[in-house]
């Protein structure tokens, strides 16, 4: 376990809390992107935001050789899909939202009139028949906004297409874990912003252009990364996302691998991961004595790594993942030391990169 000097400061911790507590549902990431950019601006030379909201901070914008460090900004959510005449609201997924955890959760419904508070209702245990209970499904979960009619619901500003997010804020457990919703993957956005901060504060002069990228719409198919990869046309992409801690009950390690919170960043092997770039990152980890774990991906990583790797006739890409418990719930958990070690590993990998570095197998 690394015992190096702590990276996260009071200022950066305050940014983390504000950024993670802010809602940033897929397709509606703008408020979160503004918070992220406002924090990032002192540490970069330039920035831009594309048509759909992916935000990019640039260091050395005139350099020909381009390196991306990337996370995705969006979180899972729900869309209002149907309002009954007696005022109950049915939803459909926006991203990989989990119907199993929805009942009894408090939610925010985002409207032009502001946030409307509501809950996912569920019949009391006393009213259900033992042995014949229905499990939560997309056909039966519903939202109660305290209204008696469809008209009352609409008067609150709620309509088909309104976005719904869970109401849960960041907290700590046992002084070791951050817990909350949307650590997947705004914690990634926090980590790459910290990389930019540390480069600036340590007065590191990179010999290439660095594109600190917070992409939108990962949860619905890597769409933001696809768009931004075409615009940047990078030579190298180092992506950070989350992966599953597999130490909790009901997870099969034979299927999911043996990964643990607190044991360091996870480096993935798979077709989209360029092996020479991966070796470069492993060398950086070993050289700086940063603990890391290994995982394998079958056909794809399921992250923005895939979008960068297969863009622009092929971009050398790699994935550094943060171990996470309870992904796509309101109690996602990440270990503080893993967060700091992901930051350290990205920094170490960048410092070892040379201008024009060629990761091809045959030259």
What is the topological layout?
Blueprint: H1 10-21, H2 30-40, E1 46-49, E2 55-59, E3 66-72, E4 77-83, E5 88-94, E6 106-111, E7 114-121, E8 142-144, H3 150-155, E9 163-166, E10 171-173, E11 177-180, H4 183-201, E12 209-215, H5 223-232, E13 236-244, H6 253-256, E14 266-269, H7 275-287, E15 293-296, H8 304-309, E16 316-324, E17 332-335, H9 336-351
Parallel strand pairs: 3-12, 3-13, 13-16, 14-15
Antiparallel strand pairs: 1-2, 2-12, 4-5, 4-9, 5-8, 6-7, 6-9, 7-8, 10-11, 11-17, 14-16
Helix pairs in contact: 1-2, 1-4, 4-9, 7-9
Structure description:
The protein is an alpha+beta fold. The protein has 2 domains: 10-75 and 181-351, Aminopeptidase; 82-166, Beta Barrel (Elongation Factor Tu (Ef-tu), domain 3), CATH 2.40.30.40. Helices cover 27% and strands 26% of the residues. It contains 9 helices and 17 strands. It has helices at 10-21, 30-40, 150-155, 183-201, 223-232, 253-256, 275-287, 304-309, 336-351, and strands at residues 46-49, 55-59, 66-72, 77-83, 88-94, 106-111, 114-121, 142-144, 163-166, 171-173, 177-180, 209-215, 236-244, 266-269, 293-296, 316-324, 332-335. The strands form 3 sheets. It has an 8-stranded mixed sheet with strand order 1-2-12-3-13-16-14-15, sandwiched between helices. Strands 4-5-8-7-6-9 form a 6-stranded antiparallel β-barrel. α1 (10-21) runs antiparallel to α2.
């Amino acid at each position: 376990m690394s015992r190096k000097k702590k990276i996260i400061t009071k200022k950066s911790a305050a940014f983390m809390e504000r950024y993670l507590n802010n809602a940033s549902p897929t397709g509606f990431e703008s408020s979160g992107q503004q918070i992220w950019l406002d924090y990032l601006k002192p540490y970069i030379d330039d920035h831009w935001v594309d048509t759909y909201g992916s935000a990019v901070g640039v260091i050395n914008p005139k350099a020909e050789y381009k390196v991306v460090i990337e996370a995705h900004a969006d979180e899972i959510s729900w869309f209002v899909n149907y309002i009954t005449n007696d005022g109950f609201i049915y939803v459909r997924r926006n991203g990989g939202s989990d119907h199993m955890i929805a009942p009894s959760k408090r939610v925010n419904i985002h409207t032009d009139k502001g946030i409307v508070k509501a809950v996912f209702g569920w019949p009391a245990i006393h009213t259900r028949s033992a042995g014949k209970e229905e499990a939560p499904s997309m056909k039966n979960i519903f939202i109660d906004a305290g209204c008696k009619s469809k008209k009352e619901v609409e008067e609150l500003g709620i309509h088909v297409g309104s976005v719904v997010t869970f109401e849960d804020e960041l907290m700590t457990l046992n002084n070791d874990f951050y817990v909350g919703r949307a650590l997947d993957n705004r914690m990634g956005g926090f980590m790459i912003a910290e990389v930019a901060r540390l480069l600036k504060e340590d007065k590191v002069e990179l010999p290439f252009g660095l594109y600190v990228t917070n992409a939108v719409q990962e949860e619905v198919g890597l769409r933001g990364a696809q768009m931004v990869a075409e615009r940047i046309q990078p030579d190298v992409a180092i992506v950070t996302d989350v992966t599953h801690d597999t130490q909790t009950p009901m997870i099969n390690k034979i299927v999911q691998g043996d990964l643990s919170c607190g044991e360091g960043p996870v480096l993935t092997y798979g077709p989209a991961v360029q092996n020479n770039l991966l070796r470069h990152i492993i060398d950086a980890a070993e050289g700086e004595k940063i603990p890391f774990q290994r995982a394998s991906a079958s056909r794809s990583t399921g992250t923005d790594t895939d979008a960068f790797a297969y863009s622009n006739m092929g971009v050398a890409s790699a994935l550094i993942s943060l171990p996470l418990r309870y992904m796509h719930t309101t109690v996602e958990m990440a270990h503080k030391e893993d967060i700091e070690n992901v930051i350290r590993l990205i920094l170490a990998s960048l410092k070892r990169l040379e201008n024009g570095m060629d990761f091809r197998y045959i030259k």
